[in-house]
Design a protein that fits this description.
Layout lengths: L4 E3 L25 E5 L1 H12 L4 E9 L7 H4 L8 E4 L1 H8 L7 E7 L14 E7 L4 H13 L4 E4 L9 H6 L9 E3 L3 H10 L3 E5 L5 E2 L8 E7 L7 H6 L1 E4 L11 H15 L4
Parallel strand pairs: 1-4, 3-4, 6-7, 6-11, 7-8, 9-11, 9-12, 10-12
Antiparallel strand pairs: 2-5, 3-5
Length: 273
């Protein structure tokens, strides 16, 4: 059971300082802490905390009339995690806008000592993002990866942090369930995957192979780039490329949409769905 509810009567209460003006001051990058927003994401955070999956809740802030509706989630939270409640005007004053969801949590990613690359299963499908700077796209990539049973996501050092509040929300909490690593250059990540037996497939509107014609293999990696610039030429030149057939009237798909279509095709080919 979670601890008893603690009433917050002032937006200046120091106990909820981390939740103030969350649009302007996101916690990403500050000791691996982040803001989780909404019931679904709170549920994912509570589950990750309870099962020791690399994330934990530090404190929770709720609109008072939402507390009863999330009681089952709070029951999964350890007693030492404080749960604060506030009336609507106080909560809005804390966060800096009308928070109609009324559910927030401060979470923390627990740094792991294991190398994700060396702990992937023998049969694995992974997604690699290069230069993914849009938080909506980053969140959608995690949601797609969860939907199509991808085993992990690797983001290069130029990609945004998926713990950003908006990315977390768009992912519907999948950032907390899909293992990921964000570091190094895209080329270094792909070389490391290739050394571990992965067939690397870059996704480009000019790709040589129809995504539906990719031969399944035990280990596959799908590589996607940022909108506009796409993948670096050094990556496209070194690894095989695939395309999603589409109308000639449009030059490309949104990376979130393209990732979903391509992961579905690759997962289906490998009989993972």
């Amino acid at each position: 059971m979670a601890a008893a509810l603690i009433t917050i009567e002032s937006a200046d209460d120091p106990r909820i300082a981390e939740f103030r003006a969350i649009r302007e001051r996101d916690l990403t990058g500050r000791q691996n802490r982040f803001i989780a927003e909404g019931t679904v994401v709170l549920r994912m955070l509570a589950e990750a905390h309870a099962t020791r999956r690399g994330f934990e809740a530090e404190k929770i802030l709720l609109l008072r009339n939402r507390a009863e509706g999330v009681a089952d989630i709070l029951a999964r939270v350890p007693d030492d995690v404080p749960v604060y409640v506030a009336e609507a005007d106080v909560l809005d004053g804390i966060v800096g806008f009308h928070l109609h969801r009324g559910v927030l949590a401060l979470g923390r990613r627990i740094p792991g000592s294991e190398n994700l690359l060396d702990n992937l299963p023998e049969r694995a499908l992974v997604l690699v993002g290069c230069g993914i700077s849009n938080h909506d796209n980053a969140g959608s990539m995690f949601r797609n990866a969860a939907a199509f049973n991808a085993d992990a996501i690797f983001l290069d050092e130029t990609s945004c942090d998926p713990l950003y509040r908006k990315a977390m929300r768009v992912s519907v909490g999948s950032v907390l369930s899909v293992p990921y690593q964000r570091s190094s250059s895209a080329l270094d990540i792909l070389v490391a995957l290739a050394e571990r037996g992965f067939d690397i497939w870059t996704l480009s509107p000019r790709g040589k192979t129809d995504i539906r014609a990719i031969a399944p293999s035990d280990r596959m990696a799908l590589v996607v780039g940022t909108e506009g610039d796409g993948l670096p030429e050094a990556v496209l030149a070194r690894f095989r490329s695939a395309r999603i057939p589409q109308s000639a009237r449009l030059d490309s798909l949104n990376v979130a949409t393209a990732t979903g279509i391509a992961l579905f095709a690759m997962a289906s080919a490998a009989v993972r769905l």
